[in-house]
Amino acid sequence: MSTGWERYADGVACAPAQRDTNLTVSRTPIDGVPTPERLGAFSDGVFSIIITIMVLELKPPPEPSFAALLPLWPTGVSYAVSYFFIAIVWVNHHHLLRFASHAAPRLVWWNFAHLFAVSLVPVSTAWVAITRFAAAPVTVYAAVFVLVNSAYVAFVWEVLAQAEVQNKVSPQMRRVTRVRSVVTLGMFAIATIVSLKFPVWGFVLVPCVLLVHLRPVQV
């Protein structure tokens, strides 16, 4: 019995009326494999929970004065940087998933690894704030960014491998995306090493590296 769905030569199953010759393709599960849309929806939920946890860590000062806010500046700065980081991660994650044809097991597991690393951001952020940028907490904080970016590199390469088969991205985009992901990984590693001796400078390097990912690479 016909289900109204057809499987095309590129391996994507979709309704004929939804078939598009442009980059955006309507995708449905293939042999039980989750679609990138489901993967993206799950990831969005995790990102939302992580941000919520960080917000709950913010505590108001006990005194009703502006002066009482000054001692909380480490909390404000660390929260702002971490929020900025998660926002950039989400933007690039959402951008990349547009080029995935299906949620293959390897892509799913790299996505889980990426989300696991991102889930460590709230606790490391709180530690940095409580200790006022001590060496050990900042080093761990930067190391978390290394973990996040390591999983992201693998995630990027898996998505680009699918996109290359489908001819969805240009060679220039593949090259720039891969080079940028590796370079930022190295810069986060440098920030981690610097934090051991100069924690403030190591912390400052983190948002500077994030600026590299501020705008996703276009097709």
Shape: globular
Query: How many individual domains?
Result: 2
- The share of residues in helices is 55-70%
Instruction: Outline the biggest β-sheet.
Output: 2 strands, antiparallel
- The secondary-structure element order is EEHHHHHHH
Average pLDDT, rounded to a whole number, is 81
Radius of gyration: 20 Å
Query: What's the total count of β strands?
Result: 2
Strand content: under 5%
Count every helix, treating DSSP H or I runs of 4 or more residues as helices. 7
The unreliable regions are: 1-29
Tell me the structural class: mainly alpha
Query: What's the end-to-end separation, in Å?
Result: 40 Å
Side-by-side strand order of the widest sheet:
1-2
Oligomer: single chain
How would you describe what is shown here?
The chain is built from seven helices and two strands. With 219 residues, the protein is mainly α. It has two domains: 32 residues, no CATH class; 179 residues, no CATH class. The protein has a two-stranded antiparallel ribbon with strand order 1-2. The chain starts with 5 loop residues before the first strand and ends in a 9-residue tail after the last helix.
Features:
2% strand; two-stranded antiparallel sheet; 2 domains; mainly alpha; 219 residues; 7 helices; disordered N terminus
Can I get a quick summary?
This protein is mainly α and 219 residues long. The protein is built from seven helices and two strands; from the N terminus they run ββααααααα.
